[in-house]
Design goal:
The chain is of the alpha+beta class and 326 residues long. The protein contains 10 helices and 18 strands. A hairpin with a 5-residue loop joins strand 15 and strand 16. Helix 4 crosses helix 10 and helix 5 packs across helix 6. The longest helix has 25 residues. Bound molecules: adenosine-5'-triphosphate (ATP) and magnesium ion.
Length: 326
């Protein structure tokens, strides 16, 4: 039987990933739970619960127990984590040691909540790692030297920005604005321009297929269905990628402004390192078309998206788990 030192968990607003060294990402499920309203019975978690979003009858609540990177519903987070840990590693005689991440700059109360949730979900020992440090480790940046690496993790609920040196954050900024807010910006834009109400899943699909921080060389279009804001009846429109770039502009600029703020407060020696090494983006939000190019243009610092950006934080917590408990 494979006995590990520990597992790493990326407790994200959109999804939970569990990573174990040698077995890699062993679980990747949406952070969603379906609960029967009256009895409070848990009906489904993860993928199964996500399939119910927007389609569940009135007696079922579909809940995202994390909001903007932090625990919003403690009990449900614990139940969800417990189910995921069990699904990932089964029943083990010795409970796992767990490294779990939090956004940078969270309060001690929020940190303790995450730690307790992991313990109650079945962890023997828990260590907390901030998302930028985990993301940097997962992107295989050499962070244990006195050298500045700038990492920006744009998830579903938070954007975590930091310059990491000697294994720790030197400067950081955590913005409660990320991929979910990009979806919301699309919902608002379409309602205002076309009097059309669309759901969150539709907005996300539009963002991924034709959304962008910059215009595409060849404009793309998509047919979008929803409900008329005026008549309440079904309605369809065609929207193009240039319009989406316009609709996403404010939120994209706010994200870049937050990165700029961190650059501004970074000590000179470290910023010189960042200038040579460039900025590394992780998290699903960093996949928005052209976001890396726009950051590079605005800040004048080379910017690239890490390989497999959505798993970097989980991989980083898993790598840390191999030596954190020694
Ligand atoms: N190709 C893509 N283009 C744009 N956005 C994308 C793409 N793929 C995924 N996303 C977005 O990435 C976000 C999820 O990213 P991620 O899985 O890193 O979040 P998370 O870790 O669960 O959240 P957080 O770290 O904020 O708690 C969602 O908003 C999703 O719509
Ligand atoms: Mg994340």
């Amino acid at each position: 039987m494979f006995v590990s030192n520990g597992i790493g968990i990326d407790l994200g607003t959109t999804s939970v990933l569990i990573y174990e060294e040698k077995r890699e990402v062993i679980l990747n499920e949406p952070s969603i739970i379906a609960v029967e309203k009256n009895s409070k019975k848990v009906l489904a978690v993860g993928h199964k619960a996500k399939r119910m979003v927007g389609r569940a009858p009135g007696n079922i609540s579909i809940i995202k127990p994390l909001k903007q990177g932090a625990i919003y519903d403690y009990d449900l987070t614990e139940i969800m984590l417990k189910k995921f840990i069990y699904k990932a590693i089964g029943k083990r005689v010795i409970k796992p040691k767990v490294v779990i991440c939090v956004p940078s700059g969270v309060t001690n109360v929020e940190k303790r909540a995450v730690e307790n949730a992991a313990k109650h979900a079945g962890a023997r020992k828990v260590k907390i790692l901030t998302k930028p440090v985990a993301a940097a480790l997962g992107a295989h940046l050499d962070i244990n030297h006195p050298f500045g690496n700038m990492i920006v993790d744009i998830g579903g609920g938070t954007s975590d920005i930091a310059v990491v040196s000697l294994g720790n954050e030197v400067v950081h900024n955590s913005l409660r604005l990320a991929g979910d807010d990009f979806d919301q910006a699309i919902i608002n834009y379409i309602r205002k321009k076309y009097n059309l109400i669309i759901g969150e899943s539709t907005a996300e699909r539009i963002k991924i297929t034709i959304g962008g921080a910059i215009k595409r060389p060849k404009t793309k279009s998509i047919l979008v269905g929803g409900k008329s804001f005026v008549s309440g009846l079904p309605k369809q429109i065609t929207i193009n990628s240039d319009e989406l770039t316009e609709g996403l502009n404010n939120i994209v600029e706010a994200t870049i402004a937050a990165i700029y703020k961190v650059v501004e407060i970074t000590p000179p020696e470290l910023i010189a390192d960042v200038m040579t090494q460039g900025i590394v983006l992780t998290g699903g939000g960093s996949l928005l078309y052209g976001l890396d190019k726009l950051i590079e243009k605005r800040l004048g610092i080379a910017t690239r998206v890490a390989e497999n950006p959505q798993t970097c934080v989980a991989v980083g917590t898993g790598i840390y788990a191999t030596y954190a408990f020694e």
